[in-house]
Write a structure and sequence with these properties.
Elements: E1 17-18, E2 35-41, H1 48-52, E3 63-67, E4 81-89, E5 95-104, E6 107-111, E7 121-126, E8 146-148, E9 154-162, E10 168-174, E11 180-181, E12 189-191, E13 194-201, E14 204-209, E15 214-216, E16 220-227, E17 231-238, E18 247-250, E19 255-263, E20 274-277, E21 294-297, E22 302-303
Parallel strand pairs: 13-19
Antiparallel strand pairs: 1-11, 2-3, 2-4, 4-9, 4-12, 5-8, 5-10, 6-7, 6-9, 10-11, 13-15, 14-16, 16-18, 17-19, 20-21, 21-22
Length: about 300
């Protein structure tokens, strides 16, 4: 059964806040606005690796929207697709939190020790098929207790892959005071940040891979300087430095980079090599590319 995501209105879904027998108080609503959902269609297989190994992931999703109600997606949305829900969890109190994930087919739940997705680690997973909001079918669905600080933002990511048949995805949390939110309410979440990468080159251009110039937080972009005819690459400036080309940059904020060039013949062009020079008469020596006293070395070989 297929469902149009635009028809799924989480405001019509009742909040599932479960309390234990001691009935601890429910925390007040948080300041969040929801979580980012992206999906990729036309991908066969039932494992998360089928999604993350696809050429379209993560930069070219089929669709994107913000889920404002809960950390949960429509059931029976489609067949042969994968999705990523990511953003920031805002704890209402300092203490130990236990996360849970339920899905059909497989899924993974990742959590960082702060807002930066680079620190995210796998904390829970569904190795097979679980029913909608079926939180206890597999031991792996429940994370270990993790201490979080009230009001801080923690990057959180759920990855899900559906083959065929029924499908669902939801993420819940056990609060420090013993209350549960299954799934997590949208007011405890904020959408993933998106950053821009501006690039400039006085002579030539710069290739970005993935292309586009706008990226979700944590995206690693490969940048390649392409000097114009008669020019050579001399190094990066701005939010990149050094002479490695191509190189990579991680999008953890808005970035700006410049490719610097010089006219051919006005610079030492053997990138990755080290130039040294000696003087046979004891006078000053200069390492000039092409002179007989210049020696180039990579550490194991030398050449004139």
């Amino acid at each position: 059964m297929l469902a149009d995501p635009s028809l799924f209105n989480t405001s019509n879904v009742s909040s599932m806040v479960i309390k234990n027998s001691q009935e601890p108080p429910i925390y007040p609503n948080g300041p969040g606005t929801g979580i980012t959902r992206e999906w990729w269609t036309g991908i066969i297989g039932t494992t998360v690796a089928n999604l993350t190994g696809n050429a379209a992931y993560p930069v070219s999703p089929t669709g994107t929207r913000i889920l404002t109600g809960f950390f949960e997606t429509p059931t029976d949305f489609d067949d042969n697709y994968g999705q990523r829900l990511h953003g920031y969890f805002i704890p209402p109190a300092t203490g130990a939190y236990t996360s849970r994930i339920a899905s059909a087919d497989s899924s993974e739940l990742w959590l960082s020790n702060g807002a930066n997705p680079v620190g995210a680690v796998l904390i829970a997973s569904t190795g097979g098929t679980a029913g909608s909001r079926e939180w206890t079918k597999y031991a792996s669905q429940k994370s270990a207790a993790i201490t979080l600080t009230a009001g801080n933002s923690y990057y959180i990511r759920a990855l899900h892959k559906e083959g065929t048949g029924s499908d669902n995805l939801a993420v819940g949390v056990d609060m420090p005071n013993g209350s549960f939110e299954r799934p997590i309410a949208g007011n405890r979440l904020n959408p993933a940040q998106v950053f821009s990468l501006a690039s400039s080159a006085a002579n030539g251009d710069i290739t970005l891979s993935p292309p586009g110039g706008t990226y979700n937080i944590g995206t690693v972009v490969t940048v390649t300087a392409n000097p114009g005819s008669g020019y050579g690459f001399t190094g990066w400036s701005g939010d990149l430095s050094g002479i490695v080309n191509p190189t990579t940059i991680t999008m953890d904020g808005n970035k700006s980079i410049t490719s610097n060039t010089a006219a051919a013949g006005s610079f030492l062009s053997r990138t990755g090599w080290v130039a040294s020079a000696s003087s046979s008469n004891g006078g000053p020596s200069n390492a000039i590319d092409g002179e007989s006293n210049t020696r180039w070395s990579t550490g194991s070989n030398q050449t004139n």
